[in-house]
Amino acid sequence: MLDVLIGIIVVAILIYVGIVLYQRYLLKQITDLQNKKSDLMDLPVASELDEVGNLNLAGSSLEEYQNLQDDYRNVKNNKFPEIDELAESGQQNVNDMKIFDARSDVSGIKDAIQVIQSESDRIQAALDQIKQENEDQQNEVKVLRHKYQTLRKTLLAKNMTYGPSIDMLNDSLERLENAFENFAKTVESGDHKKAESQLQQLQSSTKVLEDQLEAIPELYIQLNEDFPGQLDEIKNGYTQLINHNYAFVDDEIPNDIEDISQKIKENIDTLSNLRLDAVKGNNDTIASRIDNLYDLMQTEIDARTEVDGGFQTIAEYIEHAEKQSHTLLIEIDRLGQSYVLNGNEDGQAHDLETKLQDIRNEHDQDAEAITNQPVVYSEILQRMHDENDQLDEIESKQTAINESIQKLIEEEKDSRRTLHQFDLEIHEIKRHIENLNLPGIPASYMDYFFVVSDEIEKLSSNMNQVKIDMKQIDQQLGMIDKDMQSLAKKTTELTDNAALSEQIIQYTNRYRHSNETVDNASKRAQKLFDEDHDYAQSLSVISRALESVEPGMVDQLTDSYQKQKNTQY
Fold it and tell me: What is the pLDDT of residues 44-78, one digit of tens each?
Protein backbone atom coordinates (compact mmCIF):
# COMPACT_ATOMS: atom_id res chain seq x y z
CA MET A 1 0.00 0.00 0.00
CA LEU A 2 2.89 2.27 0.83
CA ASP A 3 4.47 1.60 -2.59
CA VAL A 4 1.30 2.63 -4.37
CA LEU A 5 1.13 5.82 -2.37
CA ILE A 6 4.75 6.63 -3.15
CA GLY A 7 4.12 5.98 -6.90
CA ILE A 8 1.15 8.34 -6.91
CA ILE A 9 3.21 11.04 -5.22
CA VAL A 10 6.03 10.63 -7.80
CA VAL A 11 3.60 10.87 -10.70
CA ALA A 12 2.00 13.98 -9.24
CA ILE A 13 5.39 15.62 -8.82
CA LEU A 14 6.33 14.82 -12.43
CA ILE A 15 3.05 16.22 -13.72
CA TYR A 16 3.56 19.41 -11.72
CA VAL A 17 7.11 19.81 -13.00
CA GLY A 18 5.89 19.30 -16.62
CA ILE A 19 3.18 21.91 -16.19
CA VAL A 20 5.63 24.42 -14.76
CA LEU A 21 8.07 23.85 -17.59
CA TYR A 22 5.33 24.19 -20.24
CA GLN A 23 4.17 27.45 -18.54
CA ARG A 24 7.69 28.83 -18.88
CA TYR A 25 7.79 27.72 -22.55
CA LEU A 26 4.53 29.52 -23.31
CA LEU A 27 5.67 32.67 -21.51
CA LYS A 28 8.92 32.66 -23.51
CA GLN A 29 6.98 32.28 -26.78
CA ILE A 30 4.77 35.22 -25.85
CA THR A 31 7.87 37.32 -25.06
CA ASP A 32 9.56 36.37 -28.37
CA LEU A 33 6.42 37.17 -30.37
CA GLN A 34 6.15 40.57 -28.65
CA ASN A 35 9.76 41.27 -29.61
CA LYS A 36 8.94 40.31 -33.23
CA LYS A 37 5.96 42.69 -33.12
CA SER A 38 8.33 45.43 -32.03
CA ASP A 39 10.57 44.64 -35.02
CA LEU A 40 7.58 44.91 -37.35
CA MET A 41 6.66 48.27 -35.85
CA ASP A 42 10.17 49.45 -36.70
CA LEU A 43 9.82 48.59 -40.43
CA PRO A 44 10.30 51.64 -42.75
CA VAL A 45 6.84 51.26 -44.31
CA ALA A 46 5.51 54.37 -42.61
CA SER A 47 8.43 56.52 -43.78
CA GLU A 48 8.13 55.03 -47.25
CA LEU A 49 4.48 56.02 -47.35
CA ASP A 50 5.43 59.55 -46.44
CA GLU A 51 8.15 59.62 -49.10
CA VAL A 52 5.85 58.36 -51.84
CA GLY A 53 3.16 60.78 -50.64
CA ASN A 54 5.51 63.64 -51.50
CA LEU A 55 5.65 62.58 -55.19
CA ASN A 56 2.48 64.53 -56.05
CA LEU A 57 0.65 61.47 -57.32
CA ALA A 58 -2.54 61.74 -59.34
CA GLY A 59 -5.13 59.60 -61.07
CA SER A 60 -4.97 55.86 -60.63
CA SER A 61 -1.50 56.12 -59.07
CA LEU A 62 -2.89 58.36 -56.33
CA GLU A 63 -5.83 56.03 -55.83
CA GLU A 64 -3.46 53.08 -55.46
CA TYR A 65 -1.34 55.04 -52.94
CA GLN A 66 -4.39 55.93 -50.86
CA ASN A 67 -5.43 52.28 -50.79
CA LEU A 68 -1.97 51.36 -49.51
CA GLN A 69 -2.29 54.03 -46.79
CA ASP A 70 -5.62 52.58 -45.72
CA ASP A 71 -4.19 49.06 -45.69
CA TYR A 72 -1.24 50.13 -43.50
CA ARG A 73 -3.49 52.14 -41.18
CA ASN A 74 -5.69 49.05 -40.73
CA VAL A 75 -2.64 46.99 -39.78
CA LYS A 76 -1.34 49.64 -37.39
CA ASN A 77 -4.66 50.38 -35.70
CA ASN A 78 -6.03 46.85 -35.52
CA LYS A 79 -3.40 44.17 -35.80
CA PHE A 80 -0.79 45.63 -33.42
CA PRO A 81 -3.35 46.24 -30.59
CA GLU A 82 -4.74 42.76 -31.25
CA ILE A 83 -1.29 41.31 -30.57
CA ASP A 84 -1.01 43.27 -27.30
CA GLU A 85 -4.40 42.02 -26.13
CA LEU A 86 -3.58 38.40 -27.00
CA ALA A 87 -0.19 38.66 -25.26
CA GLU A 88 -1.77 40.02 -22.06
CA SER A 89 -4.49 37.37 -22.18
CA GLY A 90 -1.92 34.64 -22.77
CA GLN A 91 0.21 35.68 -19.81
CA GLN A 92 -2.84 35.75 -17.55
CA ASN A 93 -4.00 32.34 -18.75
CA VAL A 94 -0.54 30.91 -18.09
CA ASN A 95 -0.59 32.30 -14.57
CA ASP A 96 -4.10 30.90 -14.02
CA MET A 97 -2.91 27.49 -15.28
CA LYS A 98 -5.27 27.74 -18.27
CA ILE A 99 -2.79 26.00 -20.53
CA PHE A 100 -5.06 25.34 -23.53
CA ASP A 101 -6.39 28.92 -23.54
CA ALA A 102 -2.83 30.23 -23.34
CA ARG A 103 -1.77 28.03 -26.26
CA SER A 104 -4.70 29.38 -28.31
CA ASP A 105 -3.59 32.95 -27.51
CA VAL A 106 -0.07 32.15 -28.73
CA SER A 107 -1.46 30.74 -32.00
CA GLY A 108 -3.54 33.91 -32.46
CA ILE A 109 -0.46 36.09 -31.96
CA LYS A 110 1.42 34.08 -34.62
CA ASP A 111 -1.43 34.48 -37.11
CA ALA A 112 -1.61 38.23 -36.50
CA ILE A 113 2.16 38.59 -36.93
CA GLN A 114 1.96 36.60 -40.18
CA VAL A 115 -0.78 38.92 -41.49
CA ILE A 116 1.25 42.00 -40.49
CA GLN A 117 4.39 40.61 -42.17
CA SER A 118 2.54 39.71 -45.38
CA GLU A 119 0.75 43.06 -45.59
CA SER A 120 3.93 44.98 -44.86
CA ASP A 121 5.80 43.14 -47.61
CA ARG A 122 2.97 43.74 -50.09
CA ILE A 123 2.69 47.43 -49.22
CA GLN A 124 6.48 47.85 -49.38
CA ALA A 125 6.65 46.18 -52.80
CA ALA A 126 3.82 48.35 -54.15
CA LEU A 127 5.52 51.49 -52.83
CA ASP A 128 8.81 50.41 -54.41
CA GLN A 129 7.05 49.91 -57.73
CA ILE A 130 5.47 53.37 -57.59
CA LYS A 131 8.86 54.93 -56.86
CA GLN A 132 10.50 52.90 -59.62
CA GLU A 133 7.79 53.85 -62.13
CA ASN A 134 8.25 57.49 -61.20
CA GLU A 135 12.04 57.25 -61.60
CA ASP A 136 11.81 55.29 -64.87
CA GLN A 137 9.32 57.69 -66.39
CA GLN A 138 11.36 60.69 -65.33
CA ASN A 139 14.37 59.11 -67.02
CA GLU A 140 12.29 58.23 -70.10
CA VAL A 141 11.24 61.85 -70.39
CA LYS A 142 14.91 62.81 -70.60
CA VAL A 143 15.69 60.01 -73.06
CA LEU A 144 12.81 60.81 -75.38
CA ARG A 145 13.45 64.54 -75.28
CA HIS A 146 17.06 63.94 -76.34
CA LYS A 147 15.95 61.40 -78.99
CA TYR A 148 13.48 63.82 -80.59
CA GLN A 149 16.08 66.54 -80.63
CA THR A 150 18.44 64.16 -82.42
CA LEU A 151 15.75 63.14 -84.92
CA ARG A 152 14.98 66.76 -85.63
CA LYS A 153 18.66 67.48 -86.29
CA THR A 154 18.87 64.43 -88.57
CA LEU A 155 15.92 65.58 -90.65
CA LEU A 156 17.39 69.07 -90.98
CA ALA A 157 20.89 67.90 -91.82
CA LYS A 158 19.95 65.09 -94.22
CA ASN A 159 16.67 66.27 -95.66
CA MET A 160 17.93 65.70 -99.23
CA THR A 161 18.40 61.98 -98.62
CA TYR A 162 14.72 61.56 -97.77
CA GLY A 163 13.43 63.03 -101.00
CA PRO A 164 9.67 63.75 -101.17
CA SER A 165 9.05 61.91 -97.88
CA ILE A 166 10.64 64.72 -95.84
CA ASP A 167 7.34 66.59 -95.33
CA MET A 168 5.50 63.61 -93.89
CA LEU A 169 8.52 62.71 -91.79
CA ASN A 170 8.49 66.20 -90.27
CA ASP A 171 4.78 65.89 -89.67
CA SER A 172 5.29 62.53 -87.96
CA LEU A 173 8.04 63.93 -85.78
CA GLU A 174 5.88 66.93 -84.84
CA ARG A 175 3.02 64.63 -83.82
CA LEU A 176 5.43 62.60 -81.74
CA GLU A 177 6.78 65.72 -80.03
CA ASN A 178 3.24 66.83 -79.19
CA ALA A 179 2.43 63.39 -77.81
CA PHE A 180 5.68 63.53 -75.84
CA GLU A 181 4.71 66.83 -74.23
CA ASN A 182 1.43 65.26 -73.10
CA PHE A 183 3.39 62.32 -71.72
CA ALA A 184 5.81 64.63 -69.87
CA LYS A 185 2.88 66.51 -68.30
CA THR A 186 1.27 63.24 -67.24
CA VAL A 187 4.53 62.12 -65.63
CA GLU A 188 4.86 65.51 -63.90
CA SER A 189 1.29 65.21 -62.59
CA GLY A 190 2.13 61.87 -60.98
CA ASP A 191 -0.40 59.71 -62.88
CA HIS A 192 2.11 56.94 -63.60
CA LYS A 193 -0.43 54.40 -64.83
CA LYS A 194 -1.70 56.74 -67.50
CA ALA A 195 1.86 57.77 -68.31
CA GLU A 196 2.86 54.13 -68.80
CA SER A 197 0.15 53.68 -71.44
CA GLN A 198 1.26 56.88 -73.20
CA LEU A 199 4.89 55.77 -73.02
CA GLN A 200 4.19 52.46 -74.77
CA GLN A 201 2.44 54.27 -77.64
CA LEU A 202 5.26 56.81 -77.86
CA GLN A 203 7.94 54.11 -77.95
CA SER A 204 6.08 52.20 -80.67
CA SER A 205 5.54 55.30 -82.84
CA THR A 206 9.11 56.44 -82.30
CA LYS A 207 10.42 53.04 -83.38
CA VAL A 208 8.36 53.31 -86.58
CA LEU A 209 9.83 56.74 -87.34
CA GLU A 210 13.37 55.56 -86.63
CA ASP A 211 12.91 52.55 -88.94
CA GLN A 212 11.58 54.88 -91.65
CA LEU A 213 14.54 57.22 -91.30
CA GLU A 214 16.90 54.26 -91.63
CA ALA A 215 15.15 52.63 -94.60
CA ILE A 216 14.16 55.62 -96.75
CA PRO A 217 17.63 56.83 -97.91
CA GLU A 218 18.46 53.50 -99.56
CA LEU A 219 15.02 53.25 -101.19
CA TYR A 220 15.26 56.84 -102.42
CA ILE A 221 18.77 56.32 -103.81
CA GLN A 222 17.43 53.37 -105.81
CA LEU A 223 14.57 55.44 -107.19
CA ASN A 224 16.44 58.69 -107.71
CA GLU A 225 19.91 57.48 -108.77
CA ASP A 226 20.37 53.74 -109.32
CA PHE A 227 17.33 52.93 -111.45
CA PRO A 228 17.48 56.06 -113.67
CA GLY A 229 21.22 55.49 -114.21
CA GLN A 230 20.63 51.87 -115.17
CA LEU A 231 17.84 52.83 -117.56
CA ASP A 232 20.11 55.40 -119.22
CA GLU A 233 22.77 52.70 -119.59
CA ILE A 234 20.22 50.33 -121.11
CA LYS A 235 18.99 53.04 -123.52
CA ASN A 236 22.53 53.73 -124.74
CA GLY A 237 23.36 50.04 -124.99
CA TYR A 238 20.16 49.32 -126.88
CA THR A 239 20.87 52.11 -129.36
CA GLN A 240 24.39 50.81 -129.99
CA LEU A 241 23.13 47.26 -130.53
CA ILE A 242 20.49 48.40 -133.00
CA ASN A 243 23.15 50.41 -134.87
CA HIS A 244 25.22 47.20 -135.12
CA ASN A 245 22.44 45.16 -136.74
CA TYR A 246 21.15 43.50 -133.59
CA ALA A 247 17.46 42.66 -133.36
CA PHE A 248 15.20 41.32 -130.62
CA VAL A 249 12.22 38.99 -130.61
CA ASP A 250 9.01 41.02 -130.22
CA ASP A 251 11.15 44.02 -129.40
CA GLU A 252 9.49 45.77 -126.45
CA ILE A 253 12.65 47.20 -124.92
CA PRO A 254 11.85 50.90 -125.65
CA ASN A 255 8.30 50.44 -124.30
CA ASP A 256 9.65 48.60 -121.25
CA ILE A 257 12.10 51.43 -120.56
CA GLU A 258 9.31 53.98 -120.77
CA ASP A 259 7.01 51.89 -118.57
CA ILE A 260 9.71 51.32 -115.94
CA SER A 261 10.43 55.09 -115.88
CA GLN A 262 6.76 55.70 -115.17
CA LYS A 263 6.79 53.07 -112.40
CA ILE A 264 9.76 54.83 -110.81
CA LYS A 265 7.84 58.13 -110.73
CA GLU A 266 4.80 56.42 -109.24
CA ASN A 267 6.90 54.75 -106.58
CA ILE A 268 8.47 58.08 -105.62
CA ASP A 269 4.92 59.31 -104.92
CA THR A 270 4.35 56.16 -102.84
CA LEU A 271 7.54 56.96 -100.93
CA SER A 272 6.30 60.48 -100.20
CA ASN A 273 3.31 58.90 -98.43
CA LEU A 274 5.65 56.72 -96.30
CA ARG A 275 4.14 53.46 -97.60
CA LEU A 276 7.51 51.78 -97.27
CA ASP A 277 6.36 48.16 -97.61
CA ALA A 278 4.76 49.02 -100.96
CA VAL A 279 7.88 50.98 -101.99
CA LYS A 280 10.13 48.00 -101.20
CA GLY A 281 7.94 45.61 -103.17
CA ASN A 282 7.78 47.99 -106.14
CA ASN A 283 11.55 48.53 -106.05
CA ASP A 284 12.11 44.76 -106.13
CA THR A 285 9.82 44.51 -109.17
CA ILE A 286 11.56 47.41 -110.93
CA ALA A 287 15.01 45.93 -110.19
CA SER A 288 13.88 42.56 -111.58
CA ARG A 289 12.55 44.14 -114.78
CA ILE A 290 15.78 46.11 -115.26
CA ASP A 291 17.81 42.92 -114.73
CA ASN A 292 15.66 41.21 -117.37
CA LEU A 293 16.48 43.96 -119.87
CA TYR A 294 20.19 43.60 -119.12
CA ASP A 295 19.90 39.82 -119.52
CA LEU A 296 18.00 40.19 -122.80
CA MET A 297 20.70 42.37 -124.35
CA GLN A 298 23.54 40.30 -122.89
CA THR A 299 21.95 37.17 -124.36
CA GLU A 300 22.10 38.67 -127.85
CA ILE A 301 25.67 39.89 -127.33
CA ASP A 302 26.80 36.44 -126.18
CA ALA A 303 24.83 34.79 -128.98
CA ARG A 304 26.54 36.93 -131.63
CA THR A 305 29.95 35.95 -130.27
CA GLU A 306 29.04 32.28 -130.62
CA VAL A 307 27.48 32.80 -134.04
CA ASP A 308 30.52 34.65 -135.35
CA GLY A 309 32.80 31.91 -134.04
CA GLY A 310 30.77 28.89 -135.13
CA PHE A 311 28.75 29.82 -138.22
CA GLN A 312 31.46 28.81 -140.69
CA THR A 313 32.06 25.58 -138.77
CA ILE A 314 28.42 24.58 -139.32
CA ALA A 315 28.76 25.44 -143.02
CA GLU A 316 31.79 23.15 -143.27
CA TYR A 317 29.95 20.41 -141.41
CA ILE A 318 27.06 20.68 -143.90
CA GLU A 319 29.48 20.47 -146.82
CA HIS A 320 31.13 17.41 -145.31
CA ALA A 321 27.74 15.72 -144.78
CA GLU A 322 26.74 16.50 -148.38
CA LYS A 323 29.91 14.86 -149.72
CA GLN A 324 29.24 11.85 -147.52
CA SER A 325 25.68 11.67 -148.83
CA HIS A 326 26.85 11.84 -152.47
CA THR A 327 29.42 9.08 -151.90
CA LEU A 328 26.86 6.93 -150.09
CA LEU A 329 24.29 7.21 -152.89
CA ILE A 330 26.89 6.22 -155.47
CA GLU A 331 27.92 3.20 -153.37
CA ILE A 332 24.28 2.20 -152.87
CA ASP A 333 23.72 2.41 -156.63
CA ARG A 334 26.82 0.33 -157.30
CA LEU A 335 26.02 -2.40 -154.81
CA GLY A 336 22.33 -2.27 -155.76
CA GLN A 337 23.31 -3.69 -159.15
CA SER A 338 24.69 -6.81 -157.51
CA TYR A 339 22.50 -7.20 -154.41
CA VAL A 340 18.87 -6.90 -153.43
CA LEU A 341 18.79 -4.16 -150.75
CA ASN A 342 16.21 -5.37 -148.26
CA GLY A 343 16.79 -2.59 -145.69
CA ASN A 344 15.47 0.23 -147.88
CA GLU A 345 18.95 1.72 -147.74
CA ASP A 346 18.36 3.70 -150.93
CA GLY A 347 15.20 5.31 -149.52
CA GLN A 348 16.88 6.09 -146.22
CA ALA A 349 19.86 7.69 -147.95
CA HIS A 350 17.59 9.88 -150.10
CA ASP A 351 15.64 10.93 -146.98
CA LEU A 352 18.90 11.99 -145.35
CA GLU A 353 19.83 13.91 -148.48
CA THR A 354 16.48 15.75 -148.31
CA LYS A 355 17.10 16.65 -144.67
CA LEU A 356 20.55 17.89 -145.61
CA GLN A 357 19.04 20.10 -148.27
CA ASP A 358 16.64 21.58 -145.74
CA ILE A 359 19.53 22.30 -143.36
CA ARG A 360 21.52 23.82 -146.23
CA ASN A 361 18.59 26.10 -147.19
CA GLU A 362 18.05 27.21 -143.59
CA HIS A 363 21.76 27.92 -143.08
CA ASP A 364 22.01 29.85 -146.37
CA GLN A 365 19.00 31.98 -145.38
CA ASP A 366 20.64 32.81 -142.04
CA ALA A 367 23.88 33.69 -143.82
CA GLU A 368 22.03 36.07 -146.13
CA ALA A 369 20.12 37.60 -143.20
CA ILE A 370 23.31 38.22 -141.22
CA THR A 371 24.82 39.97 -144.21
CA ASN A 372 21.87 42.12 -145.24
CA GLN A 373 19.69 42.97 -142.22
CA PRO A 374 19.44 43.11 -138.43
CA VAL A 375 18.96 39.66 -136.95
CA VAL A 376 18.06 38.02 -133.65
CA TYR A 377 21.35 36.26 -132.96
CA SER A 378 19.91 34.09 -130.19
CA GLU A 379 17.48 32.56 -132.70
CA ILE A 380 20.27 31.95 -135.20
CA LEU A 381 22.38 30.40 -132.43
CA GLN A 382 19.53 28.07 -131.48
CA ARG A 383 19.14 27.03 -135.13
CA MET A 384 22.90 26.41 -135.32
CA HIS A 385 22.65 24.11 -132.28
CA ASP A 386 19.69 22.30 -133.85
CA GLU A 387 21.53 21.99 -137.17
CA ASN A 388 24.60 20.58 -135.44
CA ASP A 389 22.45 17.98 -133.62
CA GLN A 390 20.73 17.04 -136.89
CA LEU A 391 24.05 16.73 -138.69
CA ASP A 392 25.36 14.47 -135.93
CA GLU A 393 22.31 12.27 -136.35
CA ILE A 394 22.61 12.25 -140.15
CA GLU A 395 26.27 11.29 -140.02
CA SER A 396 25.48 8.48 -137.60
CA LYS A 397 22.76 7.14 -139.91
CA GLN A 398 25.02 7.49 -142.99
CA THR A 399 27.65 5.41 -141.22
CA ALA A 400 25.10 2.77 -140.25
CA ILE A 401 23.76 2.53 -143.84
CA ASN A 402 27.25 2.27 -145.30
CA GLU A 403 28.25 -0.43 -142.82
CA SER A 404 25.04 -2.31 -143.63
CA ILE A 405 25.63 -2.39 -147.40
CA GLN A 406 29.36 -3.13 -147.09
CA LYS A 407 28.46 -6.23 -145.07
CA LEU A 408 26.78 -7.67 -148.17
CA ILE A 409 30.15 -8.28 -149.83
CA GLU A 410 31.54 -10.17 -146.83
CA GLU A 411 28.26 -12.00 -146.36
CA GLU A 412 28.42 -13.16 -149.99
CA LYS A 413 31.97 -14.46 -149.51
CA ASP A 414 30.98 -16.29 -146.33
CA SER A 415 27.92 -17.75 -148.07
CA ARG A 416 29.98 -19.03 -151.01
CA ARG A 417 32.45 -20.68 -148.60
CA THR A 418 29.55 -22.32 -146.75
CA LEU A 419 27.95 -23.45 -150.03
CA HIS A 420 31.23 -24.96 -151.14
CA GLN A 421 31.49 -26.80 -147.82
CA PHE A 422 27.95 -28.19 -148.22
CA ASP A 423 28.79 -29.37 -151.73
CA LEU A 424 31.89 -31.17 -150.47
CA GLU A 425 29.96 -32.80 -147.63
CA ILE A 426 27.14 -34.14 -149.81
CA HIS A 427 29.64 -35.59 -152.32
CA GLU A 428 31.48 -37.20 -149.43
CA ILE A 429 28.23 -38.75 -148.21
CA LYS A 430 27.50 -40.03 -151.71
CA ARG A 431 30.93 -41.67 -151.96
CA HIS A 432 30.52 -43.15 -148.50
CA ILE A 433 27.18 -44.77 -149.41
CA GLU A 434 28.61 -46.13 -152.67
CA ASN A 435 31.61 -47.61 -150.81
CA LEU A 436 29.31 -49.55 -148.49
CA ASN A 437 28.51 -51.92 -151.44
CA LEU A 438 25.05 -52.50 -150.07
CA PRO A 439 22.54 -54.56 -152.07
CA GLY A 440 20.37 -51.47 -152.25
CA ILE A 441 19.57 -48.08 -150.65
CA PRO A 442 16.22 -47.39 -148.91
CA ALA A 443 13.95 -45.22 -151.04
CA SER A 444 13.20 -42.86 -148.10
CA TYR A 445 16.90 -42.17 -147.64
CA MET A 446 17.43 -41.56 -151.33
CA ASP A 447 14.47 -39.19 -151.48
CA TYR A 448 15.87 -37.15 -148.59
CA PHE A 449 19.36 -37.20 -150.13
CA PHE A 450 18.07 -35.82 -153.44
CA VAL A 451 16.00 -33.16 -151.64
CA VAL A 452 19.13 -31.85 -149.91
CA SER A 453 21.13 -32.11 -153.08
CA ASP A 454 18.48 -30.12 -154.96
CA GLU A 455 18.54 -27.46 -152.25
CA ILE A 456 22.30 -27.06 -152.69
CA GLU A 457 21.90 -26.82 -156.44
CA LYS A 458 19.17 -24.23 -156.05
CA LEU A 459 21.31 -22.17 -153.69
CA SER A 460 24.22 -22.35 -156.11
CA SER A 461 21.95 -21.15 -158.89
CA ASN A 462 20.66 -18.25 -156.79
CA MET A 463 24.15 -17.17 -155.90
CA ASN A 464 25.17 -17.11 -159.53
CA GLN A 465 22.45 -14.65 -160.45
CA VAL A 466 23.44 -11.15 -161.62
CA LYS A 467 21.66 -9.64 -158.59
CA ILE A 468 21.52 -11.74 -155.48
CA ASP A 469 19.27 -11.51 -152.42
CA MET A 470 21.48 -12.10 -149.39
CA LYS A 471 18.50 -12.24 -147.05
CA GLN A 472 17.01 -15.10 -149.06
CA ILE A 473 20.41 -16.78 -149.32
CA ASP A 474 20.88 -16.60 -145.55
CA GLN A 475 17.52 -18.27 -145.07
CA GLN A 476 18.44 -21.03 -147.57
CA LEU A 477 21.79 -21.56 -145.86
CA GLY A 478 20.08 -21.98 -142.53
CA MET A 479 17.63 -24.52 -143.95
CA ILE A 480 20.37 -26.47 -145.76
CA ASP A 481 22.50 -26.51 -142.61
CA LYS A 482 19.68 -28.19 -140.67
CA ASP A 483 18.99 -30.63 -143.53
CA MET A 484 22.67 -31.52 -143.85
CA GLN A 485 22.80 -32.33 -140.14
CA SER A 486 19.71 -34.50 -140.55
CA LEU A 487 21.20 -36.22 -143.63
CA ALA A 488 24.43 -36.93 -141.78
CA LYS A 489 22.42 -38.50 -138.97
CA LYS A 490 20.39 -40.61 -141.41
CA THR A 491 23.60 -41.67 -143.14
CA THR A 492 25.12 -42.75 -139.83
CA GLU A 493 21.99 -44.71 -138.91
CA LEU A 494 21.95 -46.43 -142.35
CA THR A 495 25.63 -47.32 -142.10
CA ASP A 496 25.40 -48.62 -138.53
CA ASN A 497 22.20 -50.61 -139.09
CA ALA A 498 23.58 -52.33 -142.21
CA ALA A 499 26.99 -53.16 -140.69
CA LEU A 500 25.58 -54.45 -137.39
CA SER A 501 22.81 -56.42 -139.06
CA GLU A 502 25.35 -58.18 -141.28
CA GLN A 503 27.71 -58.94 -138.35
CA ILE A 504 24.97 -60.31 -136.08
CA ILE A 505 23.50 -62.47 -138.89
CA GLN A 506 26.92 -64.03 -139.38
CA TYR A 507 27.34 -64.50 -135.60
CA THR A 508 23.97 -66.25 -135.23
CA ASN A 509 24.79 -68.82 -137.94
CA ARG A 510 26.25 -70.98 -135.14
CA TYR A 511 22.75 -71.41 -133.71
CA ARG A 512 20.83 -72.04 -136.95
CA HIS A 513 21.15 -75.85 -136.90
CA SER A 514 20.37 -76.13 -133.19
CA ASN A 515 17.61 -73.49 -132.80
CA GLU A 516 14.76 -73.32 -135.21
CA THR A 517 13.61 -69.88 -133.94
CA VAL A 518 17.03 -68.40 -134.55
CA ASP A 519 17.14 -70.07 -137.96
CA ASN A 520 13.82 -68.55 -138.99
CA ALA A 521 14.82 -65.12 -137.66
CA SER A 522 18.11 -65.30 -139.52
CA LYS A 523 16.36 -66.14 -142.79
CA ARG A 524 13.86 -63.30 -142.31
CA ALA A 525 16.60 -60.80 -141.38
CA GLN A 526 18.63 -61.84 -144.45
CA LYS A 527 15.61 -61.27 -146.69
CA LEU A 528 15.00 -57.82 -145.19
CA PHE A 529 18.68 -57.06 -145.79
CA ASP A 530 19.06 -58.43 -149.36
CA GLU A 531 15.67 -57.83 -150.89
CA ASP A 532 13.84 -55.12 -148.91
CA HIS A 533 16.95 -53.12 -148.04
CA ASP A 534 15.33 -52.41 -144.65
CA TYR A 535 18.50 -52.59 -142.61
CA ALA A 536 16.94 -51.16 -139.45
CA GLN A 537 14.23 -53.83 -139.37
CA SER A 538 16.72 -56.54 -140.28
CA LEU A 539 18.88 -55.50 -137.30
CA SER A 540 15.89 -55.51 -135.01
CA VAL A 541 14.77 -59.03 -136.01
CA ILE A 542 18.17 -60.69 -135.72
CA SER A 543 19.01 -58.80 -132.47
CA ARG A 544 15.89 -60.19 -130.73
CA ALA A 545 16.73 -63.70 -131.86
CA LEU A 546 20.35 -63.49 -130.59
CA GLU A 547 19.24 -62.00 -127.25
CA SER A 548 16.94 -65.00 -126.74
CA VAL A 549 19.81 -67.48 -126.88
CA GLU A 550 22.74 -65.36 -125.72
CA PRO A 551 21.65 -62.35 -123.64
CA GLY A 552 24.01 -59.31 -123.72
CA MET A 553 25.80 -60.42 -126.86
CA VAL A 554 24.08 -57.77 -129.01
CA ASP A 555 25.49 -55.01 -126.78
CA GLN A 556 28.96 -56.56 -126.90
CA LEU A 557 28.92 -56.78 -130.69
CA THR A 558 27.60 -53.19 -130.90
CA ASP A 559 30.35 -51.85 -128.61
CA SER A 560 33.00 -53.73 -130.56
CA TYR A 561 31.67 -52.33 -133.82
CA GLN A 562 31.68 -48.73 -132.53
CA LYS A 563 35.27 -49.08 -131.33
CA GLN A 564 36.48 -50.44 -134.68
CA LYS A 565 34.45 -47.95 -136.76
CA ASN A 566 36.80 -45.59 -138.60
CA THR A 567 34.43 -43.52 -140.73
CA GLN A 568 32.57 -40.28 -139.97
CA TYR A 569 29.22 -41.87 -140.65
Answer: 665 565 555 555 554 555 556 556 665 666 666 66
Query: Is residue 467 domain-shared with residue 487, that is, in the same domain?
Result: yes
CA distance 479 to 371: 65
Q: Is residue 426 part of a domain?
A: no
Residue 538 lies inside a defined structural domain of this protein:
yes
Q: What is the total count of domains within the chain?
A: 4
Whole-angstrom Cα distance, residue 224 to residue 14? 105
pLDDT per residue over 140-195, tens digit each? 667 777 777 877 887 787 888 888 988 898 888 888 888 778 877 877 777 777 87
pTM of the full structure = 0.60
Supply the range of the domain harboring residue 52: 3-150
481 alpha-carbon distance from chain centroid: 58
Spatial separation of the C-alpha atoms in residues 222 and 285, rounded to whole Å: 12
Q: Facing residues of 339 across strands?
A: 468
CB-based contacts of 121: which residues, under 8 Å, 6+ apart?
none
| Extended beta strands in 272-414, E state | none
In a domain, residue 431? The reply is: no
**Does one domain contain both 282 and 333?**
no
Three-state SS annotation for 69-94: HHHHHHHHHHHHHHHHHHHHHHHHHH
